[in-house]
Amino acid sequence: MRLPNGATNGNVQTSMQADRSRSERLPFSPTVASHEPPTAEASVLNSIRCAQRAEYRHGDRRGCLKGTRTAVLDEIEFWTRDFDKPPVYWLNGLAGTGKSTIAQTIAERIFADGRLGASFFCSRDFEDRRDLHFIFPTIAVQLARRYTEFRSIFVPLVQSDPAIVDESLYDQMKKLIIEPLEESSISTVIVIDALDEEPASAILTVLGQFVSETTRVKFFLTGRPEPRIREGFRIPLLAEATDMFVLHEVEASQVDSDIRLFFKQGFLELARRRHELDGWPTKEQLDLLCERAAGLFVYAVATVKFVDYRNKNPKKQLDRLLLLPKSTIYEGKTKFKLNTTLDSLYASILQEAFGDNDPEDDPMVRSVLSAVILAANPLSPSAIGTLLGFDTEDVLPLLSSIHSLLTLREDTNQPVRPFHKSFPDFIVDPTRCMNKRFHVSPPSHHPELLVGCLNLMNRTLEKNMCKLPDAVTNYEVPDLRERTERYIDPALQYACKSWHKHLVDEHTACTPEITSALHRFLENKLVFWVEVLSVLGAAREAIDALDLVRKRLKASPTLKLADDCFHFVTGFFEVIEESAPHIYHSALPLSPRKSMVRKLYGSHASPMARIVHGLPVSWDPAGVTMRYSCSTAAWSPCGRLIAISDGKSGAEIRDAATLKPLTVLEFPECQTQKLVFSPDSRLLMSCNKRPENFISWDLQTGVLVSAISPELRGRPPITYSACGTMFGALIHRYSDFVICTYDVHSGTHICSHPVEGTVIGDVWTHGECLRFAVVKPGSITTWEVGFTSRNAPTEIESLPLPDNSPHDLDPDSFHPTLSRLAFTHSGRIFVWDARHSKFLLNEDAPWPISIKTSFSSDGRFFICETHPSKIYLWKESPTGYILHRKLNCQTETFNLLISPNGESIFVSSFRTIQLWRTADSTISFSRKQSRDRFIVEFSPDETLAAVKRLEDDTITVLDLKSGDPLSVVDAGMQVNGQRVTGSIVVAVGRKEVVAWNLPARNHVLNTKANVNDSIQTATISCPTMLSDPYPLEFASISPDLHSVAIVEGTSPFDGYLHLHDVPTGRCLGSVPMRGEGDKRPWFTSGGREVWYITDDDEANGLAIVEDSESGVIKLEHLGPTDQPPNTPPWLSSRGYQIMDDGWILDLSGKRLLWLPLHWQSLDTQARTWSGRFLALLHGALPEAVILELEE
Hints:
five-stranded mixed beta sheet; globular; alpha+beta
């Protein structure tokens, strides 16, 4: 990087003049769009989520006063024109030195020359302008509006792949900006201001990947010289391509001269508008002002604004400031120089504005100031009044009296915010704002804002506030943004998205006023609030808010209600996020029968499908379930992310509360064996096999940081250094173990240290060192070595092992920082606290030996999984670990993790991943989930359904109108199929076909019957089927009850279809079946044909034909055909469809219902259709689910 060379204004200007003719020939020649894009293209651009008012032309930003900052402005403008200069320019400086003002001026100048492509002014005050993922799409849309060539490439790209704007930062920049720029050969300048407002290193990391490809594009960046930003500019590719100018290292005389000029021009403009100001201010006054400004333009701007206040005498205003003490030790958070007087300036402005007020008005002053300072996003004066219960007519004058400290407009609907960050820092610090009348205490004023938000939501929230049509998803509403702006005012939007951010501590949550308002909110407005968050694209806030409430509240009815609401939001998060109307069409109708949410809000449900049978009683113990085959997983230290991998195609980063996919990381041709996060959760490392390497990724950007290929065996323990720039691994080389450390970014090997003994557990980071534990006879020894140290590891401590510990300890059962060891021995389970030489758990093991164990990071929880698929959760108590929960999984688990805070458990099993809550107070973890499927047959008139579990002997006949059981039949045999008519139910097993009469419809419900009550029994006479050991897979009975088709499986791919006469049991014939298709046979409505699917997905059939003369029954083969006369039972004859994402659609494509994942099944055999009715049959359900869909 090149530091400023101290060139004078004249030198820079001379250089620019000399090169002016050459620079005019540089390749800035794209076609600039002189009008709005055509309607079709404009609609595409308008559909992309962009940050609002981020461009230089928006907002209240002002450029440099003419004649000031000339040296730096000329140097930067010269850089923009000279393509021999590096493509990146970093203007850095401390707070208040004028970075944003210079960026605004540069943007204005190069826009006037037609060279500005896009600009983005970051701001921590606005949610979308502090979100990294808005930066590149916003810049791309500006480029598309600016340049016709760019737009012609960009618009088709977005049309073909709308999800591209939601990809990683790396892919966003590559696909949305770099590739279209290169293809269109555009030369332009892009301005990004205030990167210190964001984790700027993420943007710099991405920029470093492409800077060599952007020879015709220049990037002008500004930001504070924070360590992480400096680190980003040290990336080799970026460092070589960057010019740098340090504002706070410019000569003081030059800065003072600019500030003096600013004062002169500001006061001259004031004198033109006022009378009797000739010769004012004096030279002495200007000298003193410049001395106190101490190089900070923010002081100069605030001073001029304060003096130039309407209805005030400018001379007296200035005199008040100059009479203040000369120095203070503070300057916001920058501490640029010790002789600044920002604190005194702020105190004087507050005193002048409110000092003469009646002290009774002080609470209102502090409340309004707190709304400006503490709001999660800037509020307008009208919104402040709405939240706090004040008249806007009172709020605006109050704010106007300190206009010099704020960005304030006359429009009361425009947000107000501090003019500079140093003012909030001042007013919340009691050691700086020492006048208690004006001091804003966050612990005191956050509750006031919280109550205001809750009361506003309790007053105004209602169902379908945006007047959305039924059954649509949010993205299918083209004017959704306009609807939200029209129907949800800014104050209510703020309250819905940010109320929980004012719930700062347990004391706040437990006050009677807040507890009462919160309970009313959860009891009366929950689903309407969730609906608003859905249309605002902020559904994730509901999880954060309810989770925080659960943590803050003590045991109470409100906590119990919050638990239930939390289950509602997490259990239906997918559909809540995607479709606000389906909160009422799907989420509420599918909520458990005994859930509090259903009881409170069931009357607001508007189902398009009726749950006839199978609605759960309580919430599923697995709060969130997703479909994914996970072989390895890791939980981030921050607790908000989970990394998962199928071991074949890389890894996915998922939201740890919802399991929603966030980022996909591709590891080409790698078998991932282990995943590890860095301490700050910004990096992820995968340990891979074939090829054997370590791959490190930047998770904010999706950029591959490094790939290192040491000699690996197995799944070596890995840990990042505290700063995330190095990592260490325990590598198994031949018969020895070696600790190796590497540089994360370059992949360079730093040092290696041989290890003696058996290492147990992971290696871990302690301060600036790496630690590991070695097991020796009778002890565990902890060792430490610096990441860059060439010295041998040092022994830190040696702790004793119990006498009964086994020699072959499981390396995953050791908690390194607490020195706790879990093991099983002689039929008992132990947890040994080595540091205190005592057992925390010493119990008989009522299960086979555990196969997976894990501790939470704080040691509060210990978990182990045993055969057969049982999970035992133990919780720490004063006397040791006590059994807290028992969990039953559907299949054997592959991964078992506890969240860092011990509140959630991640479980992966065959094709599914799940989240379980450790602290749930509303569910039991003991419900068994069977692998068995169900059999459901509907009567021809669709008034009855016969339901049974596949390997059960009992058939339940349901009345489909009421959902109540009409009769329960104990068949006395394993039933493989059944048929029900209006008065008879027939069951078939391996040996018999049995029929029973049903009671009359007006009979008492839920009657009982058994095999002795049957009216007909026929013995099946197929000797081949009776003698074979193969299982009967399916059986289907004809609607006329005359025939039964039985499928016998001889392998997963092959089997036989046997056709029998029901009255006699006689076998009419058998045919072989081939392939993996659905082997379930079905009859036509007349019962004279039976059809089945073959391995080529074609239907084959058998016709039952009776010879008219002899009366002999024979079979005729039909097909193959792709259009059988009747629709198979697993497909809807009325055009209903179940999509892979869980939506049930009608023939027109209308979304009738969303099925939670544990209700879904990829197996077509696990569903049965009959007209409007659908039965879901897979065994992950506690019982078969029967739905009646809207016509």
